[in-house]
Amino acid sequence: MKVIFRLMMISFTLGMLACGEEKKSDNYVEPEINDSHSFSNPREISISHVHLNLKVDFDSTLLEGSATLSLQHNKPADTLWLDTRGLEINYVTIDSVNEKINFFLGNDVIFKGKPLGIPVKSTSKKVHVHYKTTSESVALQWLSPSQTAGKDFPFLFTQSEANLARSWVPCQDNPGVRFTYSADITVPKSMMALMSAENPQKKNDSGVYHFEMKEKIPAYLMALAVGNLEFLATGKRTGVYSEPAMVHKAVVEFSEMDDMVKAAEALYGPYRWGRFDVIVLPPSFPFGGMENPKLTFLTPTLVVGDKSLTAVVAHELAHSWSGNLVTNATWNDFWLNEGFTVYIERRIIERLRGKDFADMQAVLGMQDLKETLEDLKKEPDDTRLKLSLENRDPDDGMTDVAYEKGYLFLRLIEETVGREKFDRFLTAYFDEHAFKSITTESFIHYLNVNLLNDENGFKDKVNIDEWVYKAGIPANCPKIASEKFKTIENKVALFLNGSSASELNLQHVSTNEWLHFLDALPTKLSIAQMVDLDSAYQFTESGNAEILCKWLRKSIASDYAKANEPLEYFLIHTGRRKFVKPLYSELAKTPEGLAKAKIIYSKAKPNYHALVINTLEQILEKQSVKM
Ligand code: BES
Ligand code: ZN
Hints:
Layout: H1 2-24, E1 45-57, E2 62-73, E3 79-84, E4 87-94, E5 104-105, E6 114-119, E7 126-133, E8 140-143, E9 155-158, E10 179-186, E11 192-195, E12 208-217, E13 224-227, E14 230-233, E15 238-242, H2 244-253, H3 257-268, E16 276-280, E17 289-290, E18 295-298, H4 311-318, E19 326-328, H5 334-353, H6 355-375, H7 400-417, H8 419-432, E20 436-438, H9 440-452, H10 458-462, H11 464-469, H12 483-496, H13 511-520, H14 527-537, H15 545-558, H16 564-573, H17 577-587, H18 591-604, H19 610-626
Parallel strand pairs: 1-10, 15-16, 16-18, 19-20
Antiparallel strand pairs: 1-2, 2-7, 3-6, 4-7, 5-6, 8-9, 9-13, 10-12, 11-13, 14-15, 17-18
Bound molecules: ligand BES and zinc ion.
Residues 161-162, 287-291, 312, 315-316, 319, 338, 398, 403, 578 line the site of ligand BES.
């Protein structure tokens, strides 16, 4: 009797648990997730849907309107806590009651903004926050017509990652919380609005655009772009938006997007976001790309004319699995987004361009990583995969460590267990965690249980603990070699031994090889060597921003005067952080260079996004204190 009763109790309890889980499944937030960069309280109340009703005002450069947040009550609580930063809250109402309620806006906390506390009842379903953005709304970059390709219309774009969504939408800006969204966006007539959602392909006459994002996403994937935009298809599921002056070139550059989607699907299962479109933004865009779902944002510096830099598109596409489908639960777990994405990017690129090409990219990545490790010598903790960003700007953790050390770790696992097994593991991992956020610890558990805990000694061979929780690069790091790069290294040796640049016969080498060539040369060359290289291969006039950036850096270090003007032009006309940061850092190494950097910066600043301004001001200020 007793046994039967006990069994009944157990099955009753299990049934309860299953029920409980099912009820919460949609928006359930893992209890152990603690995002120190958010004021929100999703364990008590989580947001399940956001509806935006915003007017885009280019005259006063602000967004004004409302955000309606649908609530899911997980535990009893009397306050909904939201994140805001640089927002002016006009008033708040609840459900269909028109009465304005008393809300609480806390003090500004560095890197976090102000908590917005809204008193709610357990029966409250919707909260309407009426607000406008301000000049402190750091996600937004407003461009005047002169800062665009067409010069006729202004432009607006957002950059929400890492924790800047709160500066244009009051929300639970925590990557562990997911919600669907919809929006009605009013823009000046003759302009077009696009979001990380289902998008229009043509302008309409009303200037009001409606958007639906039916898949659940974290706040950092909310995005908006407004400009004089046109659409051209590159395939059935893919296409390019850009200003009319750019869209034709862009559509040729990115013509392989449908093939990229197919390659990614062949590796990791169906693409779950409907369309994969991209928008090519004005040059102020601070990144190479941003994986806003359904609409990747791209820098125009990728449009070179020879498809040599389109791996960035493969990267942003790869985020459709790693990052957008399975998301880092906190910014300390950032490598789960970026390390996985670099790994997948190179697998996609290998299918499209071959193993040689992918390995060349991996070696270039390793070179960047070595430089980053050198820069982080005094902050070894930042070279661990699992980060500790409490009380810090999450942006501090967004280094090559997450990308390239993360990549090497996954490549090591692939090499240890074999590609087929690893591919099957990753496909299952994405499937089982689809539309969920995950911590490093949950991933490690999943990895051990599903891949490494078997009789082959895989676990010892990989040594997860050292890779994830220790600084630097472990001794079992995969060795990546490239035959083509060996040839380049030989050419560099010849050049350094006195051969002339033209004797090296490099005119037909690829972009990857040029990049390796420039990396392999000493940081500083003699003026005669610079002149020789430049007259043989016209680096100063390069239309490829990756090559030009490395060359300009060498020009600064070598005091090569011919590059002065192109350097200033490049810094004023490109806002991509990857390029401007090393150039300003190089300039800031000498007092004369620093003075020059400050003059250029004062001219260029209006073209830079707030994230880039933040990085550059640290460089320029740190150096002036040192002097
Ligand atoms: N998600 C990142 C961009 C990002 C990272 C924005 C951190 C804000 C905070 C994007 O996917 C990315 O990694 N872009 C790279 C592409 C490159 C690694 C191929 C870039 O912009 O250079
Ligand atoms: Zn990325």
